[in-house]
Design goal:
The protein contains four helices and 15 strands. The chain has 248 residues and is α+β, with helices and mostly antiparallel strands. The strands form two sheets. An eight-stranded mixed beta sheet has the order 9-10-11-8-12-15-14-13, covered by helices on one side. Strands 2-3-1-4-7-6-5 form a seven-stranded mixed beta sheet. A hairpin with a 5-residue loop joins strand 10 and strand 11.
Length: 248
Amino acid sequence: MANSVLWFQVLGRNAQGLRDFYRDVFRWKISDGDTSNGGDYGYVESGSGGIPGGIGSGSDRSLSHATFYVEVEDQLAIVAKARELGGRVINPPSELRGGKLTFGYMSDPEGHVIGLSTGLSARPDGSSSNPVLSFEIMGQDSNSLREFYKSLFGWTMNEAPFPDYWEVDPGESIRGGIGPARAAGLRSDDGFATFKVEVADPEATLARVRELGGETVMKMYAVPGTGLRVAYFTDPEGHIVGLTGGLA
């Protein structure tokens, strides 16, 4: 499963508030906060075909993001390569569970933060609704981002039928995409790295997001020539997350 995306994550200031928000919006099964490592972290059960994840706050309370983790065999080698390609280390690898799991954070040349994991394994489908079925990196220069991640992880990239967007195939687990930030409804090119949640009705989900203190970033958009619908929102702490309908 080397260089596959096996985990998603939301970190912020109000761990319980974030868990309550996502539990209400998506009806996810989320555990109570685990405080054993100095944070407050709840585990999200996967849905059919999707990946599991976590929501809360870490021991480093300055970390705030919605992102995904790439499972790698050698984190030190990956971060060294990332530096060569213009990325940087955010948090160096640290061990959990007696060294059985190792986690770290890096950023790409545009500053988008992603996690690195070693020791995770694909889990059987859980029973949460609304699975996380894809990941995405949206930024200023999608071609440069494509080359960075292709060189770093060896991911297969295929040009999508819309401008400057590339479909990402890590080979196993969920797939993803790399494209321009403005295609996600952003007024600037600041961009983000995130995960996308498959829902039956993106418009109804956006309405519930707004009721709970989030905001719509991009209204539902039906991709021409496909059955796919996409949208983006921010949670109450400003993290951008995508929605898909018709991906499953």
